[in-house]
Automatic annotation (TrEMBL):
InterPro entries: Lysozyme-like_dom_sf, MltB-like, MltB_2, Peptidoglycan-bd-like, PGBD-like_sf, PGBDSf, SLT_2. Residues 401-448 form the Peptidoglycan binding-like domain. GO terms for molecular function: peptidoglycan lytic transglycosylase activity. Residues 75-379 form the Transglycosylase SLT domain. This is Lytic murein transglycosylase. GO terms for biological process: peptidoglycan catabolic process. SUPFAM superfamilies: Lysozyme-like (SSF53955), PGBD-like (SSF47090). Residues 1-33, 113-135 are annotated as: Disordered. It comes from Rhizobium terricola. Residues 16-33, 126-135 have a biased composition (Polar residues).
Length: 456
């Protein structure tokens, strides 16, 4: 788990679904799978810095030692003259504000910083990023480790989980899977002061406005008395405690489940588990449904039918000949319920029929692979399930710029690929499958090296 809290830069990307702004990406997965924060905003030039200093800073990604001191001074002035009036307007007391900001300094080690006067980072590197198979996301060793620990913790906290399930209608296995994935069941060390991270990013980062909102929310949490500023620990991205909530999510979803009067997602397991469940319930979790099934799509049934906007009753998919890969029957109670096809690697990987609960998991972290990871881990914890049966295949060596070129070609031919960003989300996959079928190719619904020359 340790690696997940290391600063990194330039990995967050936008997927094709609307992003939810609930938490920034925490995972070190392949870049195209993640990106809850939406488009990185181009930092406004906020501070009128002398032109000479600007040109100096442009030559270096981070300001040098001398100018760092100057930026620290600007930061202190910003806290008092810029941030405080907004915090005051939002109902924060001067006492809580001063206490939270006492001795605060910028954290220069965080990723995606844009010190005043420097240019925002160019996205050029992203287009040269190698595009790899999603398979590496599902490390069998890691999943087995999380499942083993998850099962024993599900036993240890069985009575709490039963109460949480009764209160929120979310299966304990799903809650425990998220708890494990997000913070190693609360065991991962959260090394950062959330206030320091949020204030640094609100002052100088690629997404200042977003982090400013989160900082104000963090001040509300402190003002409310659930936790002190120094105890409010988080990730390098400002995500808090065992469920890894951003402060705005904390204010919406955190609950006091152990009854001590505080919503303590840092130290209380019952509060952490119930807060995760409440997040999912408020995001629309349907108690009577699972998350989905790995399936076999027969030859001749197109993979280009996927997407949350193409839901059908499960029985309609079954009528096309789609079966569970386990050969078990679909549960009869779900047959009439709304279900979607999901092929994250087209025909090059495992194929799924998913329920709306799958998209609720994506509200927690807007990535198909994240939601599949949680579903798979929960099945292991609940039923002793194993790895997905179908392997993620090799799609050849490609760059994001190659995917981008294919997207542009599809758009020129009138297809809707969603965002033209070099990331093959479901609309791109679907468009590619339709184009393949129209051109006499068997649809694979995923960019691969062999298609580069054909699709121009
Ligand atoms: Ca509590």
């Amino acid at each position: 788990m340790k690696a997940r809290f290391r600063p990194r830069s330039g990995r967050e990307r936008q997927s094709e679904l609307p992003t939810t702004n609930r938490r920034p990406p925490m995972t070190g997965l392949t870049s195209w799978t993640s990106g809850r924060l939406g488009k990185r905003s181009i930092a406004r030039s906020t501070v009128a810095i002398a032109a000479a200093l600007t040109s100096l800073l442009l030559s270096a990604p981070i300001a040098g030692a001398a100018s760092k001191a100057a930026v620290e001074q600007q930061f202190q002035a910003w806290l008092v003259k810029d941030l405080w009036p907004e915090a005051q307007g939002a109902g924060i007391s001067r006492g809580a504000f001063d206490k939270a900001m006492a001795g605060l300094k910028l954290n220069w080690d965080l990723p995606d910083l844009v010190p005043p006067g420097s240019a925002p980072p160019k996205d050029q590197k992203q287009s040269q990023a190698e595009f790899s198979s999603p398979g590496s996301y599902f490390s069998e060793k890691r999943l087995q480790g999380l499942a083993g620990t998850g099962r024993s913790l599900a036993d240890r906290h069985a009575s709490t989980l039963r109460k949480v399930e009764a209160a929120y209608g979310v299966p304990g296995s799903i809650i425990v899977a998220i708890w494990g994935r997000e913070s190693g069941f609360g065991g991962a060390k959260l090394p950062y002061s959330a206030v320091e991270v949020l204030a640094t990013k609100a002052f100088m980062s690629t997404r200042k406005d977003l982090f400013r909102r989160e900082l104000i929310s963090a001040l509300h949490i402190i003002e409310g008395g659930d936790i002190g500023a120094t105890e409010m620990k988080g990730s390098w991205a400002g995500a808090l405690g065992q469920p890894q909530f951003m402060p705005t999510s904390y204010l919406k979803y955190a609950v006091d489940f152990d009854g001590d009067g505080h919503r303590d997602i840092w130290n209380s397991v019952p509060d952490s588990l119930a807060s995760i469940a409440n997040y999912l319930k408020k995001s629309g979790w349907q108690a009577e449904r699972g998350w989905g099934f790995e399936v076999a799509i027969p030859d001749g049934v197109s993979c280009a039918q996927e997407g949350p906007d193409r839901a059908k009753p499960l029985s309609d998919w079954a009528a096309q000949g789609i079966t569970r890969i386990s050969d078990k029957a679909f549960p009869s109670k779900e047959l009439s319920a709304s279900t979607m096809m999901l092929v994250p690697a087209g025909t090059h990987g495992p194929e799924f029929l998913v329920s709306p609960n799958f998209y609720v998991l994506k509200e927690y972290n807007n990535s198909d692979l994240y939601a599949l990871f949680i579903g798979n881990l929960a099945d292991r914890i609940a039923y002793g399930g194993g790895a997905f049966k179908a392997p993620f295949g090799d799609v050849g060596k490609m760059l994001r710029s190659d995917v981008l070129a294919m997207q542009k070609a599809l758009v020129a031919k009138g297809y809707d690929v969603g965002n033209v960003d070099g990331l093959p989300g479901f609309k791109t996959r679907r468009a590619l499958g339709d184009w393949q079928a129209k051109n006499g190719l068997a649809p694979t619904c995923f960019p691969d090296a062999s298609l580069k020359g054909k699709l121009r």
